[in-house]
Specification:
About 30% of the residues lie in helices and about 30% in strands. The protein is of the alpha+beta class. The chain has three domains: about 280 residues, BirA Bifunctional Protein, domain 2, CATH 3.30.930; about 40 residues, no CATH class; about 100 residues, Rossmann fold, CATH 3.40.50.800. The structure holds adenosine-5'-triphosphate. The site of adenosine-5'-triphosphate has 15 residues, from strand 11, strand 14, strand 17 and helix 9.
């Protein structure tokens, strides 16, 4: 198998319409990307797989979709205003700015100079004016993580669902970080999506649940197609932990640019609920919290002995964009077909494939064949398997190549035999084996239901 490089993936993403540089026509906006026609499908499929496994398949997790604009107080009391920063250093020679902890051998990554300033903290949050007065006095933030709204809505969710510990709240949505050096395509960007679960547990049971979620999340990534051998579990050393964490595992993946974090699984203790709660002195808090005279609610829950307790929280937090990059990296293959021919094929898990089935007419613009194609497509859509695409290129070889590259698991070809012979039949071609066989049109729904669902 040929080695995969980031350049190959970036080229495929642009060529086939997965991911484009944002504001490309104006030279781009650094660290910001747009998902194209196929990218939006792939990303939605990955998010749906996460939502399904977290919310639908379990009985202990609720969903939430909170706002991106965030009240400043939330991020003051969460500690982000003071501590959500990366160390930044300047090169005195070329004036480049870099994350100090990404610099190797004390040399400027740009020009190689060793004349670098002392690292200083750079806050990663995007401040934004809220309301019609823009004199700097009234501002909020674009959220740097989706988690905070889960904490601030904790009581509303508990009150409206009568939940008892342990239970979780799941959310998928955009987050924003003014990264000092965005890089490696969609790996480190300034606007990205997170899928976060905050799983609330009894204090003292947190370590057990931390282990549980580590294993559950590795298994889920395997179900998305990532090989266990391409993942690594990194235990964050105590000194490097985020300001809210007692312990953290990173699920790392072998991206084209190296083994790097795909998902963090943190034990956030009672830090967040404790910091946002009213009347902290009445609670048995274990973490060091700032006094909070502003909160109007007690963020606690009744335990089995009718005592109020501030739960601990375990947080599996995945980057959706990093997830897209990981599943594409894993799926990308260049196969040698002999005689100097290679084919690029994206061996995505079928539930992730942007297009599930391509219906292809053997002859372009032939009315009878096209009508049959439309009819088949409409019938397949009713199965609810996802996007079914109709091709009208008239070049079967080209259509197969395109659908191999974008990971379409099955192609259905409608030919003259389909419309002239009884019973009506079509050719089905498998992406991975390239094998083809005839299936009766009447049997297609059952065949595809069996294959996809
Ligand atoms: P890193 O150390 O790579 O900066 P982090 O530890 O700050 O990441 P978390 O705060 O744990 O990241 O965020 C949870 C997840 O969100 C990460 O595992 C990652 O998948 C994703 N994520 C964080 N920052 C970015 C970013 N700038 N671009 C894309 N995804 C990101």
């Amino acid at each position: 198998m040929v080695a995969k490089t980031m350049d190959q993936l970036v080229a495929l993403c642009k060529r086939r319409g997965f991911i484009f540089q944002n504001a490309d026509i104006y030279g781009g906006l650094q660290g910001v990307y747009d998902y194209g026609p196929l990218g939006v499908e792939l990303k939605n499929n990955l998010k749906n797989a996460w939502w399904r496994s977290m919310v639908y398949e379990r009985d202990d997790i609720e969903g939430l979709d909170a706002a991106i604009l965030t009240n400043r107080k939330v991020l003051q009391y969460s500690g982000h205003e003071d501590t959500f920063s990366d160390p930044m250093t300047d090169c005195k020679k070329c004036k480049g700015r870099f994350r100090a902890d990404h610099i190797k051998d004390g040399k400027c990554p740009n020009c190689g100079s060793t004349e670098l300033t002392e690292p200083r903290p750079f806050n990663l949050m995007f401040k934004t004016a809220i309301g019609p007065v823009d004199d700097g006095s009234v501002f909020g933030y674009l959220r740097p993580e989706t988690a905070q709204a889960i904490f601030t809505q904790f009581r509303n969710v508990v009150d409206s669902t009568s939940r008892k510990l342990p239970f979780g709240i799941a959310q998928i949505g955009k987050s924003f970080r003014n990264e000092i050096t965005p890089r490696n395509f969609i790996f480190r960007v300034r606007e990205f999506e997170q899928a976060e679960l905050e799983y609330f547990v009894m204090p003292g049971e947190d370590e057990k649940w931390h282990e549980y979620w580590k294993e559950a999340r590795i298994k889920w990534w395997e179900e998305q197609g990532l090989k266990r051998d391409n993942m690594n579990i990194y235990t964050t050393p105590k000194d490097d932990l985020a300001h809210y964490a007692k312990a953290c595992y990173d699920i790392e993946y072998q991206f084209p640019h190296g083994m790097e974090e795909l998902e963090g699984i943190a034990n956030r203790t009672d830090y967040d609920l404790g910091n946002h709660t009213k009347a902290q002195e009445e609670m048995n808090l274990t973490s060091h919290c700032h006094p909070n005279p502003d909160s109007t609610q007690k963020l606690c829950i009744m335990d089995d002995n009718n005592k109020w307790v501030v739960p601990f929280v375990i947080e599996p937090s995945m980057g959706v964009d990093r997830g897209v990059l990981a599943v594409m990296t894993e799926a990308y293959e260049e196969e040698d077909l002999g005689e100097g021919n290679t084919r690029v094929v994206l061996k995505l898990k079928k539930h992730l494939a942007p297009i599930k089935v391509a219906v292809i007419p053997l002859k372009k613009n032939n009315e009878a064949i096209m009508n049959k194609c439309h009819e088949i497509k409409q019938n397949l859509l009713k199965l609810g398997i996802g996007r079914v695409a109709l091709e009208n290129t008239g070049n079967i070889g080209k259509a197969y190549r395109r659908h191999d590259e974008i990971g379409t698991p099955l192609c259905i070809t409608v030919d003259f035999e389909t419309i002239e012979n009884q019973p009506e039949s079509v050719t089905i071609r498998d992406r991975d084996t390239m094998e083809q066989h005839r299936v009766n049109v009447a049997d297609l729904p059952a065949y595809l239901r069996e294959y996809f669902l």
